[in-house]
Amino acid sequence: MKATVNEDLCIGCESCVDICPDVFEMQDEFVVCRFDDEIPPEFEEACREAAESCPVEAIAIED
Ligand code: SF4
Known about the structure:
By secondary structure, the protein is an alpha+beta fold. The protein has one domain (2-62): Alpha-Beta Plaits. It is 24% helix and 25% strand. The protein has 2 helices and 4 strands. A two-stranded antiparallel sheet has the order 1-4. Strand 2 and strand 3 form a beta hairpin. It is globular. It starts with a strand and ends with a strand. Bound molecules: iron/sulfur cluster (SF4). Iron/sulfur cluster binds next to helix 1.
């Protein structure tokens, strides 16, 4: 599974960081995914939850 954050959409609310800090981190005023490639399986569930929590649907999940 991969996750990408669309910086044009992200409003920096940090909801995803609160839910899944292992995968998402703030960089300046936007969030980035820590993993360019596959997200470790143990983080997948929280990562999906974080994507669903995003108020502007800026997080794309690719299975
Ligand atoms: S939840 Fe969405 S809008 Fe909020 S910081 Fe994360 S990616 Fe950005």
